[in-house]
């Protein structure tokens, strides 16, 4: 579907599958083949780094990787190479695409030869990027799609993560959290400052300890208790799967499992159960945290109830 839609466009477009190892290209349109000279069948299945070469700016590459990894929209200009070896300035616009469960599935790249673009041309590329889909629905989607709410809350959760991390960074402690490059040198100190920031947070915040068998929760905030009905003495020491039940989506559980295993961030929508037995839709972001040796030392979960007043406010504020 995505591939067919890009075919009609005059701009060079590639689509990378964020679930495939190495974020492989799954689609490239005819305009891409014309711009780069690479035959489409030669690029499918490869990571885009084959377009880089000796003059490619490493800080620009880092910005691209950051945008792709953190599902951020972005525009980066960098030196790339065509199939015949000639260099060109590539104005690369990136657009993340999520599925109807809020799971990050694809990254779309729009490539342009910056040397051929005047101001109007650049604006046109940006307009095109904004028109690209940010949601992609799969036939097997278990829950009806609610694209704007999911997208808005993902943005909200990202902002919340950034705020929590900024508190930490301001106090001189670094955390590798989403796009943040620093890592905590003292895990106990990080934990104390993180939980101090999360206590009054309006969203559910939970932290687990993956070094303990079963990855049990070691912290939940008041909003988690309010949303789920579970107090600290009932939730701590247990794996958070106690919130799942018969209607919880197995696909979402698999994504979480993979995220913890690979220490990469994920965002899923999952049907969860309160202590009372009531069902709610949980937009869950899981962010693994690495210690100064690069080892996984904590997983932070951010829980947002999709039908809550907070979610509705976030939805309305997005207009
Ligand atoms: C910090 C953290 C918070 C989590 N929060 C939730 C949650 O709110 N709802 C949920 O269904 N699963 C949540 N999980 C996922 C489960 O704990 C578990 O990792 C998932 O079910 C996959 O593992 P399993 O297949 O062994 O159950 C969370 C996991 C972590 C690490």
Automatic annotation (TrEMBL):
Domain of life: Eukaryota
Domain PAS: 1-47, 217-263
UniProt keyword annotations, A-Z: Chromophore, Flavoprotein, FMN
PROSITE patterns: PAC, PAS
Gene Ontology CC entries for this record: nucleus
Domain PAC span(s) in chain numbering: 72-126
NCBIfam families, per database record: sensory_box (TIGR00229)
Name used for this protein in its record: LOV domain-containing protein
Organism: Emiliania huxleyi (strain CCMP1516)
């Amino acid at each position: 579907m995505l591939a067919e839609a890009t075919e009609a466009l005059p701009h060079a477009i590639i689509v990378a599958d964020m679930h495939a190892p190495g974020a492989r290209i799954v689609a490239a349109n005819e305009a891409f083949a014309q711009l780069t000279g690479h035959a489409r069948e030669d690029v499918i299945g490869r990571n885009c780094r084959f377009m880089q070469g000796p003059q490619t700016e490493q800080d620009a590459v880092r910005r691209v990787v950051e945008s792709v990894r953190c599902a951020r929209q972005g525009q980066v200009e960098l030196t790339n190479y065509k199939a015949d070896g000639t260099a060109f300035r590539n104005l690369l616009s990136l657009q993340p695409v999520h599925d109807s469960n809020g799971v990050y599935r694809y990254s779309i790249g729009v490539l342009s030869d910056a040397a051929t673009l005047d101001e109007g041309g650049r604006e046109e590329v940006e307009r095109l990027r904004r028109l690209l889909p940010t949601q992609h629905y799969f036939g097997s989607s278990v829950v009806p799609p609610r694209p704007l709410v999911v997208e808005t809350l993902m943005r909200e959760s990202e902002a919340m993560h950034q705020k929590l991390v900024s508190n930490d960074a301001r106090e001189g402690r670094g955390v590798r959290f989403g796009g943040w490059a620093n890592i905590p040198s003292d895990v106990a100190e990080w934990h104390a400052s993180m939980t101090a920031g999360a206590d009054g947070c309006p969203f559910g915040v939970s932290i687990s300890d993956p070094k303990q068998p079963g990855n049990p929760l070691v912290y939940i905030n008041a909003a988690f208790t309010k949303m789920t009905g579970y107090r600290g003495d009932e939730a701590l020491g247990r794996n958070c799967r106690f919130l799942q039940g018969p209607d919880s989506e197995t696909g979402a559980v698999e994504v979480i499992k993979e995220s913890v295993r690979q220490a990469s961030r994920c965002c899923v929508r999952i049907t969860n159960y309160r202590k009372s037995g009531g069902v709610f839709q949980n937009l869950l972001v899981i962010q693994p945290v690495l210690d100064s040796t690069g080892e996984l030392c904590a997983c932070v979960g951010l829980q947002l109830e999709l039908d809550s007043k907070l979610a509705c406010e976030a939805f309305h504020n997005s207009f």
